[in-house]
Amino acid sequence: MTVDARRAGDALAASSEDLARVWRAGRASARPAAFPGLIDGVIDSYLLQAGDALANGRDPALVWPATEGVVRLDVRDPRRTSAELDAEWDLVEEVLLAALGALDAGEDSLEWARRAVVLARASTRTLRLGGRGGVLPVILHSDPAAMRIARAGGGFR
């Protein structure tokens, strides 16, 4: 029996923190050189907003504008940043579709989730031009790994 969009969205919203952990684990194992993820600071909010919007029949275009947090952008290598963002959004889509599939959500819910991810992906590409709403783009001018080394007690050399 197929689960309707309202119930599927409620389940996504209720499990958004768990889904964010799944996303983080998958992202860390797939791309260990880029840690934390560029959208790591918005993933919890995004998944919660996606579930809420699906449950309430809102347009998937409204998910990203309701998302809050920090997106990291490496200005030293825009091509790599774009590739990392694409890989991270691919994983968001994979996590959402797997969760909806496990719920036996209908094809309409799956297509809704795909569209929400496409729109969010496109929006993160424009963050370089300035922030919007509750999303703060953080522009990195140094190697992101330097922060990880410093936090691990290695200091800067």
Write the layout of secondary structure elements.
Elements: H1 5-14, H2 16-30, H3 43-55, H4 63-66, E1 69-74, H5 78-102, H6 107-125, E2 135-140, H7 144-151
Parallel strand pairs: 1-2
Helix pairs in contact: 1-3, 2-3, 2-5, 5-6
Helix content: 55-70%
Helix segment tally: 7
Total strand count, please? 2
DSSP strand content: 5-15%
**In terms of per-residue confidence, which ranges show pLDDT below 50 for 5 or more consecutive residues?**
146-152
Mean pLDDT: 85
Alpha carbon gap, first and last residue: 59 Å
Gross morphology is: globular
- Quickly give the structural class: mainly alpha
Number of domains: 1
Radius of gyration: 16 Å
List the secondary-structure elements in sequence, H or E.
HHHHEHHEH
Largest sheet, strands/sense/barrel:
2 strands, parallel
Strand line-up in the sheet with most strands: 1-2
Keywords summarizing the entry:
mainly alpha; 7 helices; two-stranded parallel sheet; 157 residues; single chain
Describe this structure in words.
There is one protein chain. With 157 residues, the protein is mainly α. It has one domain. Helices cover 60% and strands 8% of the residues. The protein is built from seven helices and two strands, in the order ααααβααβα. The protein has helices spanning 5-14, 16-30, 43-55, 63-66, 78-102, 107-125, 144-151; strands spanning 69-74, 135-140. It has a two-stranded parallel sheet with strand order 1-2. α2 (16-30) packs across α3 and α5 (78-102) runs antiparallel to α6 (107-125). The longest helix is centred in the middle third of the chain and has 25 residues, at 78-102. The protein is globular, with a radius of gyration of 16 Å. The termini are far apart. Mean pLDDT is 85; it is low at 146-152.
